[in-house]
Amino acid sequence: MALMVLIALLALGTGLLLWLPKYRLQRALARPFPRHYAEILRKNMPAYSKMPADLQLQLKRLIQQFLHQKKFVGCDGLNITDEIRVTIAGKACLLLLNRPTPAYPNLSFILVYPSAFIVPRSEIETGGLVTHGDQTLLGESWDDDRVILAWDHVRRSNAESDPGQDVVLHEFAHQLDSASGSTNGAPHLTSRARYARWSSVFLQEFALLQEAAQHRSASVIDHYGATSPAEFFAVATEAFFEKSQQLGQEHPALFAALREFYCVDPREWQ
Ligand SMILES: [Zn+2]
Questions:
Q1: Ligand 1 is an ion; residues with CB less than 5 A from it
Q2: How many structural domains compose the chain?
Q3: 140 CA to centre of ligand 1 in angstroms
Q4: 270 pLDDT exceeds 90?
Q5: 97 and 77 in one domain?
Q6: Residue 5 Cα, ligand 1 centroid: separation in angstroms?
Q7: What separation in Å is there between the alpha carbon of 7 and the centre of ligand 1?
Q8: 160 and 193 assigned to the same domain
Q9: Distance from the alpha carbon of residue 59 to the mean position of ligand 1, in angstroms
């Protein structure tokens, strides 16, 4: 009898543990979206004010989920404020609108530095010689569980002051890319046919950008994307959301592939 009671209690405890995170999330989503959060979005994310009401609603819900599930860590003495949390969450969740996908399930931490940060780097050169050095970064996405960002650059990255570049969109595009199993410029797509279409368009556009970078000719897509297919996907994502009209006109096939993947058309709110 005592054994049966013990088993029942254990089963109940396990059930509660499984149920608790879901219950907590539901409670977080049921809370009203704070008014000052919306003010932060209007100030630091110009696209928000121009979006249709249904997308604004979706975005607010995704932000609440994101803020509930991810932990923000201030680095180098940075105090994490609501402005930092909501601005980063808003831009990260822009990439999830209209898509039945979990909100960055592998990501747990967002580390935020006040400004550009320095990371040690080791490189193996031809012949096996290992060289060590430092690299200054504005953002970095890790495959395991974190994204690192420089806050002053996040704040400056908006359509009005610095069109076409957005470090949050860039790093979270890397997160979507790595969620497919490898960070190679192809995020998770739903069918073989879509992968085939994606690789045909992206390889062609990647080659065009490499050529533009080589000749230093102007491009709506940042030349940095020519360094690898993964960087190409990240900068193409920035251009898709930040320079959508120009990207649509100059690279219609790439724009169509990104619109199919992201399930939104940012031209509607620019
Ligand atoms: Zn990158």
A1: 231, 234
A2: 2
A3: 7
A4: no
A5: yes
A6: 55
A7: 51
A8: no
A9: 24
Q: How far is the CA of 174 from the centre of ligand 1 (A)?
A: 7
Mean pLDDT, residues 242-259? 96
Instruction: Give the pLDDT confidence of 124-163 residue by residue, as tens digits.
Output: 776 777 778 888 888 888 887 899 999 999 988 764 555 7
Q: Enumerate long-range contacts of 51-60, CB under 8 Å, 24 or more apart.
A: 51/268, 51/269, 52/268, 52/269, 55/97, 55/98, 55/264, 55/269, 58/97, 58/98, 59/90, 59/93, 59/94, 59/97, 60/33
Confidence of residue 119 (pLDDT cuts 50, 70, 90): confident
Q: Which CATH number is 243's domain given?
A: 3.40.390.10
Beta carbons within 8 Å of 257's beta carbon, 6+ residues apart: 197, 198, 201, 202
Task: With respect to residue 14, please indicate whether it lies within any of the assigned structural domains.
Answer: no
CA 179 – ligand 1 centroid, Å:
15
Q: Average the pLDDT over 117-121 and give the result.
A: 82
How close is the Cα of 207 to the center of ligand 1, in Å? Answer: 18
Task: Name 139's bridge partners.
Answer: 149
